Amino acid sequence: MVINGKVRQSCTAMVDQLAPSGETITLEPMSKFPLVRDLIVDRSRMFDDLKKVKAWIQLDGTYELGPGPRQSSKTRRKPIPCRGV
Q: β-strand 40-41 against 6-7: which pairing, if any?
């Protein structure tokens, strides 16, 4: 979403930091994706392209991730809770 002219995740945007003195906050849909309704955009094209190039690392233990600290599944951070359409 575009908030006050900057693209950011709306679910983590802190209103008190965006408008500390009660200023107006402007919300707009992202312009790079087709508009579905109101502020909702269709990001399926982006996710389909990511699937085609396999732009992620599986964390199921089948890939060598190289040296470095490992976290157990109990202490691993959860994914970002934002969900798109």
A: unpaired
